Amino acid sequence: MAPASAIAALGVYIFTFNCGLTAIDSDAVASQLFNALTTPQLPDLLVLSLQEIAPLPHALVGGSFLVPYFAKFHDAVEKASKKLGGEYTAVVARNVGMTALVVFAKDPAAVRDLETAGVGVGLWDMGNKGAVGVRFTYHGSDGETELTFVAAHLAAMEDEVERRNQDWKSIVRGLVFSSVSKSAGQATSLSVSSEDRPLLSISPRDASIYKPTSHLFVAGDLNYRTSSMKPSPTDYVDTFPQPHYDTTHNNHFSNLFEHDQLTQEHEAGRTLHGLVEERITFPPTYKYTSKEPFLTPDEDLIQWHWAKHRWPSWCDRILYLPLPSWLSKPGAKIVAHKYTSVPLFPTSDHRAVALSLSVPLVPIPPPQEEEESDDPRIKPPFDVSPDWKQSRQRARILELFVGFTLYFTTTWEGAAVLVAGVAGIRKKEGEGQSPLRIHLGGKIALTAIIKLAFEKLACNAPFGPKEPGLPVSGILPK
């Protein structure tokens, strides 16, 4: 219990990582997961923002195709938390294509009024790039507060800064929250898709990313670079930072940060409106080559092995919305304890980034109608798209089509299913069966293939028709 004169605080730990389209090494992630902790005590909430969580076919189809990839993170969290003498329960996991968000809680019953949202901003609005959001009220013994977490993955390449800004606009317009369950901590079965649940009977503002009564945290591979052009052949030697350069050296990474696109676009009011970021004191998080030593702290490195065709950049970021001016609670403040990157993992060319902070456990009241403020909770930069749901449904159909096509044509597992089906048809031909029976047999084989594929979609999620998802709790098998 907090002293009577103090405001209780909720410990929140946010970890963002571009997984590189492959399953992680659980032991490696576990060894570095809590690098941003400043005390040995586990925070109340652990939030994982994951990009490129799986190969494209598996991610677009989703459902149980993704369970092995989520399970790796469950193992990592379990191992890391046990080292600190605690444990977590996964209360929600959601994805849109290759972008995923997982929330763990020490007290899952404290997570209530769960809402989720998702939007694709990739090709034809599919989820090769996009964002996924989770919103809930945390009910602690000393108070409560509403929190919104968003995992995002924006467009790549140095010269695509305007596209990244447009992706952010699409996220603000298309990330619309709808209810999943009354209490995540009490949920034990699969959630249902949003086509079975109406849009919340509230104002679009309250269903948007900028809800006036909620905290907001955005984490992900935002992909903003340190140049609008690719590096020249000489830049690698003449300009790229290295660990032995001190702050007085022209090539120290702090000088490179002066060209950070996110900072420039944010200050110009073109992206991440209203959000703030703690001061960056760590080296660029992208792009490392396979020569870079894994799990090695910067102070033990002689050289950073940068990819020569990409400017070293801080692609991976975590930002949050400050407390609103209408929260007149003396002593209430968000306290950031540590913002840092972690050593490189063996499965990615990105370094993960983590932020530990304390959030006041007090509700944010609705603003008064006459409230004048530039806070985006009151004046959002963009309106919610009126056809957000239809757009997501259309994109979801495309994701399934593209995902299954790629699964059957580019993966060994999918090819094996097709070969088995074709072999069955040819066997019938060899047995001299009538064309009608062969046709029926082929139809049965094709039906079996499709049935097998759709059985992979074991669960529904609240993003549109037959959106793959995972149960609200108990979702990650050991």
From TrEMBL:
Alphabetized InterPro entries for the sequence? Endo/exonu/phosph_ase_sf (IPR036691), IP5 (IPR046985), IPPc (IPR000300)
Q: Where is this region: Disordered?
A: 364-385
Pfam families in UniProt: Exo_endo_phos2
Q: Name one GO biological process term.
A: phosphatidylinositol dephosphorylation
Q: Which GO terms describe its molecular function?
A: phosphatidylinositol-4,5-bisphosphate 5-phosphatase activity
Instruction: List the Gene3D superfamilies hit by this protein, alphabetically.
Output: Endonuclease/exonuclease/phosphatase (3.60.10.10)
Alphabetical list of SMART domains matching this protein: IPPc
The Inositol polyphosphate-related phosphatase domain, residue ranges: 8-365
Q: What is this protein called?
A: Inositol polyphosphate-related phosphatase domain-containing protein
